[in-house]
């Protein structure tokens, strides 16, 4: 069974049909740039471009980088604030020609995919997935059950939102070495999250997960096991499709 998934990120919007038996993309994903500014109408138009690229005619799952309750956006830290209060499901549904659309938080989608098909499969206790990209998304699970919309990237770290210091974008913008970023930024953030939640497992996702060997060796001193996301940057697409299939 294939269902379409779209992952809206701060820099790119990507999607593909997903094989929900294997938990993998059924076709090579198509990606477009996130518009600047990332207003609701413009982003919905880009989502429609991605869906139209495949000639898709069926349910569509869409991730959003912020808190989503029902299909209404409640926060929008890394896209235009005009999203706040927008019924994203209705807006995107209209843009894709009336196809049924399900919208959920981006990290929650990635987390559900990893817990079902990836690094969290079969794990119990507290598991936290963190997506390291334009910001830091989070998905918290207790014995496999999701606690939605946790947004742990906005915890305070050194007087700033943690994602402003420990995200992949922060590393790139400040031209930090992998070692400096991992030891001075990411490790301190993980230690703070660990103090609050005492997880058994951290799963690190987002585009940076494909370069895990560059920074994982520097994350010593964390009691929890730390592993890269197995679905890597496709996890959000897979999780979005899973949500749309329910």
TrEMBL record:
Q: What protein am I looking at?
A: ROK family protein
> Gene3D superfamilies per the record?
3.30.420.40
The record's annotation in PANTHER family points to: POLYPHOSPHATE GLUCOKINASE, ROK (REPRESSOR, ORF, KINASE) FAMILY
Query: What's the family?
Result: Belongs to the ROK (NagC/XylR) family.
Q: Coiled coil: which residue ranges? A: none
NCBIfam families cross-referenced by the UniProt entry: PolPhglucPhase
Entry-linked Pfam families: ROK (PF00480)
CDD domains reported in the protein's UniProt record: ASKHA_NBD_ROK_PPGK
